[in-house]
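Summary for the funding panel

The consortium committed to producing paired sequence-structure records for every protein in the target list. Below we show the first two records in order, beginning with the earlier of the two.
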Amino acid sequence: MDSTTIDVLPYDSLVKIEISGTFYERLQNCLFAALQEKEDEPEELALILKELETRQPANNWEERVYVLLAIIYEVDNQAAQQEVLVKKSIDIPPNSSPEVSPES
């Protein structure tokens, strides 16, 4: 059997990256889309999100949500530390994704 080597990131490594606001919005949209899969079960969704604070994801859906939440959380933390956050109002019409509009 042939083998080759590839570059990998060690599990205990931390990498500093730059994220644009546009990419951040795409991350949020992915999270909203994943959460909409459970919108008919709000109690179950709330329970799963609470449990993910203390346990590993149990299936592919939970894994996607967990990864997106972790990335968004870290981007939010870094943005706050770097003082680049701005305030925006968020309108959430019934049964739809949030629409973000700048505050006046």
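The next record, for a separate protein in the list, is shown here:
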Amino acid sequence: MATVQRLWWVGLTGVLGLYYLVIGAMVGGVTGIVAILGAVLIGTALALRTRSMPAASVLLVMGALPLGILTWWSLVTPIMAVLALLCGGLAIGTGGKSSGSRLHRFARTRGSI
């Protein structure tokens, strides 16, 4: 059960990264390039989460925020950026550990896990 909980956050973050990729393919231009790069950085952050938590965190922020900031006037993309940071933070925070991270314990006490 603990493995499913850990991978749940990884899966949600991966789906948000795929949405970034879809937005990038549909929009085009500078916004599209930023969205595609964001998707790549989010995926890279998920891949590095078990090796280097600080590097994965930086990549997650660099991948999620620029599209949300660039399209601040929209409703969907800033919310996606916040969700990517929250879900990605939980995915990175749980890393390869079962339930020992501070972020995972915080989420569990708040009833989100």
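Regarding this second record: The mean pLDDT is 87. The helical segments are 2-27, 29-48, 53-70, 76-94, 102-109.
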